[in-house]
Design a protein that fits this description.
By secondary structure, the chain is of the alpha/beta class. Helix content is about 40%, strand content about 15%. The radius of gyration is 21 Å and the shape is globular.
Length: about 230
């Protein structure tokens, strides 16, 4: 058997390489709504989508939900679909959050964490603006007032055909600094340090434990704690 024939047989027996995803196209994923029905990002194609990854322990998310609700109410007729997905596995914390923060947009859950990995979520919240063709227009890592203002402007520009600021990519520093904890698994970092009750010694102990956890997760900032507060 000659060499050319061997190469031909090898090439036909090996699986074809997977085609790379088109640049800027939002990865599809499935998630369930709060009633357990299954949805996918792909089913929203044809709409402008504002996709937010959130966590029930995330303080900026509490402030962000009313903003998302307002955007959905004001721009629904223009084709905006707001979707907020959490990777939180604790049912009670999710239920408590959505009860305290009622919304008119689709709230979903992906307890597998696959969506968070696909989008390289490193802070909470992480929000993406996706156009009608499924292309990512902008990304907002964190929940500061400035980012909320930029997000509102980007949504309005996308709906009216105006220019949207370039995609805000996740820095290599953030990806590398998050340690073994994924952003949506860091709820335990926001523990009793947030509670100022107790004597001075108890508060000091809590602060020491909290700081140690932050250091173990990363660098003590957004990349370490993953809440996007600062």
């Amino acid at each position: 058997m000659n060499f050319a024939l061997i190469l031909m047989l090898l090439s036909t027996s090996m699986p074809a390489p997977s085609q790379p995803t088109a640049a800027g196209v939002a990865p599809d994923f499935t998630f369930s709504d709060l009633e357990g029905a299954t949805h996918s990002l792909a089913e929203l194609r044809g709409n402008t989508v504002l996709l937010e990854f959130w966590a029930p322990w995330c303080i900026p998310c509490r402030k962000g939900f009313p903003l998302l609700d307002d955007l959905q109410a004001r721009h629904a007729k223009a084709g905006l679909k707001v979707v907020a997905v959490t990777m939180e596995t604790d049912d009670d914390s999710v239920a408590d959050f959505v009860t305290s923060h009622p919304s008119r947009f689709l709230v979903g859950r992906d307890i597998t964490g696959h969506a968070g990995e696909a989008y390289e979520v490193s802070v909470m919240p992480t929000t993406l603006l996706i156009d009608r063709d499924g292309k990512i227009l902008a990304r907002f890592d964190g929940g500061t007032d400035t980012l909320h203002q930029q997000m509102q402007a980007a949504v309005e520009a996308a709906l009216t055909g105006g220019g949207v600021a370039p995609v805000q990519t996740v820095s290599k520093r953030r990806r590398g600094a998050k340690g073994n904890l994924r952003a949506w698994e860091r709820g335990y970092l926001a523990d009793p340090i947030m509670n100022l009750d107790g004597d001075t010694l108890t508060r000091s102990m809590r602060e020491h434990i909290h700081t140690s956890k932050e250091a173990a997760a990363g660098n003590g900032g957004v990349a370490g704690g993953g809440c996007g507060c600062n």
